[in-house]
Amino acid sequence: MNLAMITIYGVHRSRASRNIWLAHELGIPFKLVPVIQHYRLKEPIPADVVHTKSPSFLKVNPNGHIPTLEDDGLVLHESLAINLYLAKKHGGPLAPSNVGEDGLMGMWSLWAATEVEAHSLSIAQNGPTASAIDALRAPFAVLQEALPNGFLVGDRFTVADINVAEVVRYADGATELFRGAPRVKAWFEACRARPAYRKMWDAREKEPA
Ligand SMILES: N[C@@H](CCC(=O)N[C@@H](CS)C(=O)NCC(=O)O)C(=O)O
């Protein structure tokens, strides 16, 4: 297995948090190359600040989005795909143990991105509007049913829990959704209590808002 240090482009206050959390869970070192969202910067942007529209970063990720992972010449975009890749590469309990679990972890990651993220992000950006809350009632009910033993896949904490929890996190302000789904609330709190999450979050809090 290639164990050269990976590079993550991004900042903690972005979806790179997902990859940083996972890297801490796996105990793998990484180099964080700071690239900030262009929309967070005020003009004039200092020449030494690399952002999502910088020509140098667009060569790395032509989508102009963070995060991007570089791993010994392999370049990957999409935070949730990066996590699935890193978990599988490093193995252990966070990774799928068979092709069925692999399917389930992919399913939950795509589910989070397609069924939840637009609405949860809207709550993070605009607050808990009635329309965003309504749109998330069904996905929260699905999640509630999927968590009888407190984890999404197998009887253990996996990359699927990280990927879904990081997307659900944006809906944190919608307390009524969590009140109506006690298993989701307990699972989410357990995810956020993990030392690797706290390590990511503490570093995030130290970054300028
Ligand atoms: N689906 C992508 C979305 C990436 C994305 O939109 N990242 C945001 C930061 S969290 C970004 O780079 N925004 C910068 C911009 O839109 O200019 C992923 O999960 O990696």
Automatic annotation (TrEMBL):
<protein>
    <submittedName>
        <fullName>Glutathione S-transferase</fullName>
    </submittedName>
</protein>
<feature type="domain" description="GST C-terminal">
    <location>
        <begin position="98"/>
        <end position="209"/>
    </location>
</feature>
<dbReference type="InterPro" id="IPR010987">
    <property type="entry name" value="Glutathione-S-Trfase_C-like"/>
</dbReference>
<dbReference type="Pfam" id="PF13409">
    <property type="entry name" value="GST_N_2"/>
</dbReference>
<keyword id="KW-0808">Transferase</keyword>
<dbReference type="InterPro" id="IPR004046">
    <property type="entry name" value="GST_C"/>
</dbReference>
<dbReference type="InterPro" id="IPR004045">
    <property type="entry name" value="Glutathione_S-Trfase_N"/>
</dbReference>
<dbReference type="InterPro" id="IPR040079">
    <property type="entry name" value="Glutathione_S-Trfase"/>
</dbReference>
<dbReference type="GO" id="GO:0016740">
    <property type="term" value="F:transferase activity"/>
</dbReference>
<dbReference type="InterPro" id="IPR036249">
    <property type="entry name" value="Thioredoxin-like_sf"/>
</dbReference>
<dbReference type="InterPro" id="IPR036282">
    <property type="entry name" value="Glutathione-S-Trfase_C_sf"/>
</dbReference>
<feature type="domain" description="GST N-terminal">
    <location>
        <begin position="3"/>
        <end position="94"/>
    </location>
</feature>
<dbReference type="Pfam" id="PF00043">
    <property type="entry name" value="GST_C"/>
</dbReference>
